[in-house]
Amino acid sequence: MSSLPAPRVQPPVPTRTILATIGLLLTTALLLYVVLETRQVLTWCVVGAFFAVALAPVVGWVQRTVFRGKRRSLATLLVVLVAFVLFAALITAFAVPLAQEGTKVAGQLPGLVDDARNGRGPVGDLLERTNALQWVQDNQQRISDFASGLTTPAAGVLGGIATGVTGLVTVIVLAYLMVLEGPKIVDGTLALFAPATSTRIRRVATDCARSVTGYLSGNLLISVVCGVLTYVVLLIAGVPFAGLIALFVGIADLIPLVGATIGGVVAVLAGFLHSVPAGIAVLVFFLLYQQLENHLLQPLVFARTVKVNPLTVIVAILVGVELVGVLGALLAIPVASIIQVIARDVWDHRRGRLKDEPTVGEDRDPALAPHERADDGTPSGASVVEPAARR
């Protein structure tokens, strides 16, 4: 009678493995906590990095042409100052007319309110048709309570403005320092790797930087197109302050997918305040333009500047909006392009070679007839190109 084999006894898990696992979990939890607590600062760093990548080629060009390859600090300072001046000029071009017209409206406000109460003028006619005056008279107490409650979050609004100004200054300083010290940091980091690996990393990083620059230039081009077309439509419709409204629409359009909608709401309201036909014309224009921009203009422009498939552009924006909101919409396309560059490089260096005999279809039929293939399996008249050279 044969005896049963003795059961296998699993060796105990080493204490070192248990401690290492616990340490890894604690480190991961600590890292997540730090990221959540410093997400505002990390957001500023990411935005500053994108602006630094966009300004780096300009700084390099100024350094080579103006300073003959020297004094990068002066070249960086010059480019950042010019960019800041352009940004300040853009804000001034928007804020000054707005302040002037706001002063005029404030002076005419008593007359407008009196006309509205008596049902005169465009506002009075609108209120009379919608029975808004009667609703206001019936709900005066609620409106008073709501207005008094608006004073409560005033400190929060001021705090938000202060945070925005702080963030803007922080982003500018970070972008300046990143552009200035970027080459030293890159060279010092790449010196840790072997020459072949260092060259590969530098090439991939250059492609990623080009994708970010292409995204920013493409997004700016789309915003210019949107602003110009909006100006033309408002000018034809006779809407006042067409240039100011078009400038706001162009700035808002920098936000993919939803930017045109945000600017379009303002433009449509301005059109209806001018006249009903003008409002309808502006509304029809934005309904058509938004579809054209989201599904044709943005995918085509970004496919050329960022080298990303149009379908990938739309999917990346939708995913970015769902995950991070407006910032995700702004960063989705360059992030998708960077992932594509890295994935292509990994594929080319690991397993990206073509098959000896390319096939198509469910039946795996040869893609080329026998007389079209050379003896080594490649297409006749074609040469074998290394993956890096194909790019």
UniProtKB/TrEMBL annotation:
Membrane association type: Multi-pass membrane protein
Region (Disordered): 354-391
Keyword set includes Oxidoreductase: no
Subcellular location: Cell membrane
Transmembrane parts of this sequence: 17-35, 41-62, 74-96, 154-179, 220-251, 257-289
Nuclease keyword on record: no
Any GO BP: transmembrane transport
Predominant localisation class: membrane
Gene Ontology terms: cellular component: plasma membrane
Sequence ranges of Basic and acidic residues compositional bias: 354-376
Keywords: Cell membrane, Membrane, Transmembrane, Transmembrane helix, Transport
Protein origin, superkingdom: Bacteria
Record family assignment: Belongs to the autoinducer-2 exporter (AI-2E) (TC 2.A.86) family.
The protein's name: Permease
Top-level taxonomy: Bacteria, Bacillati, Actinomycetota, Actinomycetes, Geodermatophilales
